[in-house]
Amino acid sequence: MRNLILAAVAFLMIAPAQATTVSGVELEPQIQVQQQDLVLNGAGVRSKFFIDLYVGSLYLPAKSQAVDAILASEEVSAIRLNITSGMITSEKMTDAILEGFDNATNGNPGEMQQRIDDFIGVFNEEIVKGDQYTFNFIPGKGVVGFKNGEQKVIVDGDDFRVAMMKIWLGEKPAQKKLKQQMLGN
């Protein structure tokens, strides 16, 4: 019996990572940012009024549930949003992200306001079900934003990077359940 358990554990350790599916979205178990492999830390659904809006996923160099360590990390990370509803519009997403920045900065974005305004441009184009936004967080640089694999924006500054991560991982996240799911809980 012991040998069977050890064999099963060994198989699981060498078996290729399996894709995770959340709300019909197949999530990559691993992505690469700046030539660094990131693993899927966790993922969940952002919903409102019983409607699934998007799947949010967090990618880190190694799995972690320690929010403070994730925010302070000197390593690259990423958050990916897969749109699952046709109800999301550019205007609604812009409003939600602006509210997220407001919560992340306690209503005082200060010197970040112009960079927030520049970043919001990533949502100017029509948003349709199936769109994918990826935000690469690069310490010492800032945030690189993509829509459907096409780079749309670069915003400098660690303060911006941390504030943006707090939209999903901060004390007032977009949705508490989604935060917990992205942290792997």
UniProtKB/TrEMBL annotation:
It comes from the Bacteria. InterPro entries: Chalcone_isomerase (IPR016087), Chalcone_isomerase_3-sand (IPR016088), Chalcone_isomerase_sf (IPR036298). Keywords: Isomerase, Signal. It holds the Pfam family Chalcone_3. Residues 19-184 form the Chalcone isomerase domain. Residues 1-19 form the signal peptide. GO terms for molecular function: intramolecular lyase activity. Coiled coil: none annotated. The keyword Signal applies. This is Chalcone isomerase. It comes from Paraferrimonas sedimenticola.
